[in-house]
Design goal:
47% helix, 100 residues, two-stranded antiparallel sheet, mainly alpha
Length: 100
């Protein structure tokens, strides 16, 4: 991490804060709750709090039409959900989930 940070500060100092930002979460669901008919662009969805709010809104909508599913969305779960969502949206996308 230190070596990467020194290279960034030397050559790309104007972008250092953006590149080293944590967490880096991307998806095509950012506008899904506010603009359901908008084009689904793959973009940064924000930090944990913003992404948790998006997933909570979708979960609330799901629970309204189906038997309630109570999920606890902690930081690692949010990261996994964004990855799983990306894979499922791909043509012929599949992944292996192993729970311990």
């Amino acid at each position: 991490q230190g070596h990467i940070q020194s290279i960034l500060s030397e050559y790309f100092s104007s972008h250092e804060a953006t590149v080293l930002k944590e967490p880096i979460l991307f998806g095509d669901f950012k506008l899904l709750t506010t603009e359901p008919n908008a084009a689904r662009l793959y973009q940064e969805v924000g930090g944990y709090l913003e992404t948790k709010a998006l997933f909570d809104a979708q979960l609330e909508e799901y629970n309204y039409d189906n038997p309630p599913m109570n999920l606890v969305l902690f930081d690692d779960a949010i990261e996994h959900l964004t990855r799983i969502h990306r894979v499922i949206r791909m043509d012929e996308g599949h992944c292996l989930l192993v729970g311990v």
